[in-house]
Amino acid sequence: MASNTKYYDNLTVSNSPHLVTSLDTTKTMLFVVAALCPAAVMSIVYFGVPAVVLIAVCMAACAFFEWAYEKILNKPVTVRDGSALVTGLILALNLPANLTRLESIQYPIFMPILIAIIGSFVAIVIVKQLFGGMGRNFANPAIVGRITLFLSFTSFMSCWPTTNFQKIDAVTSATPLGYLADGSLAYAPSLKDMFLGNIGGAMGETCALAILIGAIFLIAKKIISPIIPVCFVATVFIFALVYYAVIGGGPDGQSALYMAAFHIFAGGVMFGAVFCATDYVTSPIMPLGKVLFGIGCGLVTMIIRLFCSYPEGVSFAILFMNIMTPLINNFAEDQFYGISKRKKAAAEKNA
Questions:
Q1: In DSSP terms, which residues pair with 172 in a beta bridge?
Q2: How open is the CA angle 334-141-17, to the nearest 5 degrees?
């Protein structure tokens, strides 16, 4: 027995799954950051220095709060895995760029930066760490951070800047969904501008092309499955197509097909579908669950957009479906393994 001791010393005992791969959490987070880079770069191109400030503040604040929380509670410091930086980057790209420009007599100059820091605190400490840290959060931290800021600082979070390429004098302008909520798309940007990002809105949500590049990269690297983004976007498209076909087109006579494309490029549908709804922890595991999750996100988004007073609904839709994920997982597992059928057959046999 003594002669075999050296072999036993080399054994590592751990819980399943026992999957050996070179892809760990840190590398995964680096791939996500790389996929977010096109959207981040375009936000800087369109919105300038304020975009750089927000990205730096949110990423630094998220990393600091994770480090500080774990240090204070004597927990292993996990900030090096990069997940906090990803949360900070996603949160920053969900904010209006002129958050750092809004100053008035009612607020001190540092207030806009403080708002971004508060959102980072909510995302990391409240949503992630208080529920056990990485892998145990009940919802996407960045999404909850954005919703918290929107509900707490509505005037700041609903004032959208124009881009550097829009030839108008106003500091802010309505988003495409804002024009739709006002009942007219006469002054709304074209689909081309919406695809390229030359519109008002949250920094990372405006350029659909940059988001598409990031999505292709993540899918090619097998970091995310295409099921959720495809089902999410397809549901939004089909829902809008049917709705506007029934009511006879858009507010200014646009075709149902145009309105369906409009709802995909407007707001946060593409960004949310690619970078938020696909979060490993808060989305279903099995393919059927992913399909149901994506469809649910699309349905809730369109219900909010078309039948509620709030013009956007992506963040609330993803949060709602995050909460539904455990139920979806249970249903998908039952269907995959035939548990429900076996229980029904056993009940009928016993009867």
A1: 161
A2: 45
Whether 101 and 229 share a structural domain: no
Domain assignment of residue 91, given as a range = 25-166+199-222
Judgement on whether residues 75 and 160 belong to the same structural domain of the protein: yes
The reply to whether 114 and 210 lie within a common domain is yes
Q: Which residues of 18-45 are buried (b: 16+ CB within 10 A; e: fewer)?
A: eeeeeeeeeebbebbbebbebbbebbbe
H-type helices in the chain, by residue range?
Answer: 5-9, 25-47, 49-72, 83-93, 111-121, 141-152, 154-157, 176-181, 191-196, 208-220, 227-247, 256-265, 269-271, 287-307, 314-337, 339-350
The CA-CA-CA angle for residues 281, 283, 284, to 5°, reads 110
Count: domains in the chain? 2
Each residue of 7-49: pLDDT tens digit? 555 556 665 555 556 677 889 999 999 999 999 999 999 888 8
Amino acid, res. 265: F
